[in-house]
Specification:
The chain is α/β, with parallel strands linked by helices and 187 residues long. Helix content is 41%, strand content 21%. It contains six helices and eight strands, in the order E-H-E-H-E-H-H-E-H-E-E-E-E-H. Strands 1, 2, 3, 4, 5 and 6 form a six-stranded parallel β-sheet that branches. Strands 7-8 form a two-stranded antiparallel ribbon. Strand 1, helix 1 and strand 2 form a beta-alpha-beta unit. The chain starts with 5 loop residues before the first strand and ends with a helix. The relative contact order is 0.18.
Length: 187
């Protein structure tokens, strides 16, 4: 194996106006960048203007660009907010519309937030991971709307989360490296 750094995408799982996922994603990236163990980048699904899965002929440029972006990454950290006990429709659509091969044999961590720390959304996402052959890691920072957000909208994370974010990143990097070897051996 080479000493080449892994490429880890921090995927923002919401596209709505007024979302806080960009702040949460930048916070995670700030922690990750101090580690110098991988190349981390924010990947905002809103930038790809994805059509609804099944309501398209698949030729829109956003679909090809999204699939190429996912394929270029060795692993993921999903920033997941809980809506009605699940993930956002935009994230589910983004997971479905990228080519399955772009996701296969890669690792992912989850940073979730919501009234119950986004735990129910994270559990739904883990089920989707299984179908897409994504290895979900155990480390899971959960952010509460009651303690990590001022007035439920201004992100003010507690320092208590730093160890959990770093544990999750340790696991994402370890699994991403191992699965990269597997992917390289398949080619």
């Amino acid at each position: 194996m080479t000493n080449e750094k892994l490429n880890i995408g921090i995927i923002l799982g919401s596209t709505r106006q007024g979302r806080v996922s960009p702040e949460v994603g930048e916070w995670v990236k700030g922690i990750a960048d101090k580690r110098e163990d991988a190349n981390y980048e924010i990947v905002d699904i809103a930038d790809f203007q994805l059509p609804f899965f099944g309501a398209t002929d698949g030729t829109e440029p956003g679909i090809a660009a999204w699939s190429a972006k996912v394929a270029s990454l060795d692993g993921f950290v999903f920033i997941v907010q809980e809506y009605n006990h699940s993930i956002t429709g935009a994230l589910k659509n983004a997971l479905d519309i990228a080519t399955r091969e772009a996701w296969n044999n890669k690792a992912a961590g989850i940073v979730s937030y919501g009234g119950a720390g986004g735990a129910r959304a994270a559990e739904h996402l883990r089920g989707i991971f299984g179908e897409l052959q994504i290895a979900g890691v155990k480390g899971h920072p959960t952010l509460s709307l009651f303690t990590d957000f001022e007035n439920f909208s201004t992100f003010k994370p507690g320092d208590v989360h730093l160890d959990t974010v770093n544990l999750m990143l340790d696991q994402v990097n370890a699994w991403s490296g191992a699965l990269k070897i597997l992917r390289n051996n398949e080619n």
